[in-house]
């Protein structure tokens, strides 16, 4: 018997323990993961490949790469049905080589997906996630992490969409000329949210069918995005600010706006976003999930692990193989029903993605936006040619 389940069962009333045995729970979670794809909203494996291997994967065994949180063997153990991989570039690239750094990242992800065609497959739509899942492969989707990857260009945004990216996190931990990031909230006084150009970016993402991701942005930007986007938006990896008052997390008033928007918050595992003390466990993740679904409803929660994007993870959730332990914990200890778990692991994300796709179709008559951000609004133009 799994130790965690043993402890869980011992802490329950004898009647409840008799109803849910560990074997039953294993069976229920196993069946669940075969029926509904577990869609993880955020994984930084590609950043590890860059940092440790300079993007070289030909000699890297991604079936079994034990140095990091993620490899294919453990993704299978973890029942991962779809992974959104972060296309990330550090903020130091802003105004310099951000577009190149992001494209290299995207290329790395595409190459590792193509290297393992029996296990991984690119997916660019909600329907492709479902189809790939039926074939028993793990869907791989692309999310741009950091609006600085655009170098303030709507043209670059459109080209990133054509290359297959399906969400964009508007910032990493730095402002862009058109939106502010969460670190601003540490000195929160009159933080501006989105500029007019920033609103154009949101409108163009709505038109393209690219999901707007508000993890990492400032609170003012969250409020502005929610007033601008005509499609549901997400937090791909953020938690409740009420339970862990960190600027990366989301305050209750914004969560209520997210509910109105029919959007989604995908709960994330870095320990300090679960508990500002930095000490966290599976039960901390359950606490955030429970707090948020009681506030805004079960239709608005998901999972966005941030594996390989953080050195510090909760006890019991050390790598991608551990998702079933979280689900078992919710089922056995927190009395989550199978219906709730289905929504959490995948159905909610699929619904949001479908809504975003529907909004895009409905905007077919809209012309691509053409405004250019004047160079006078860039913080640093050293690397710019005057005529561009
Ligand atoms: C996986 O990698 C580890 C560390 O390099 C090694 O000890 C182990 O034997 C490998 N397992 C398989 C199945 O190749
Ligand atoms: C916050 O204010 C302090 C003191 O004025 C300053 O040093 C720091 O850079 C500010 N942080 C941000 C993120 O603006
Ligand atoms: C602007 O960018 C250049 C090139 O990256 C750099 O050398 C310079 O220090 C930057 N200037 C400022 C004010 O940040």
CATH architecture: Alpha-Beta Barrel
Distance between the termini: 64 Å
Let me know the average pLDDT: 95
Look at the helices and sheets and give the structural class: alpha/beta
C-alpha Rg (nearest Å): 20 Å
What's the name of the CATH homologous superfamily?
Answer: Metal-dependent hydrolases
One letter per element, helices H and strands E, the order comes to HHHEHHEHEHEHEHEHEHEHHEHH
CATH topology: TIM Barrel
> CATH class, please?
Alpha Beta
Give a list of the ligands. 2-acetamido-2-deoxy-beta-D-glucopyranose
Count the DSSP helices. Answer: 15
The description of the largest β-sheet is: 6 strands, parallel
Strands, total number:
9
State the helicity in percent bands.
40-55%
Shape: globular
Number of domains: 1
How big a fraction of the residues is strand?
5-15%
Q: Show unreliable segments.
A: 3-10
Per-chain topology:
Layout: H1 3-10, H2 14-19, H3 22-35, E1 38-43, H4 45-53, H5 72-77, E2 80-88, H6 98-115, E3 120-122, H7 126-134, E4 138-145, H8 154-162, E5 165-169, H9 196-208, E6 211-213, H10 219-228, E7 234-235, H11 252-260, E8 264-267, H12 271-274, H13 282-296, E9 301-303, H14 323-333, H15 338-362
Helix pairs in contact: 1-14, 3-14, 4-6, 8-9, 13-14
Bound molecules: 2-acetamido-2-deoxy-beta-D-glucopyranose (3 copies).
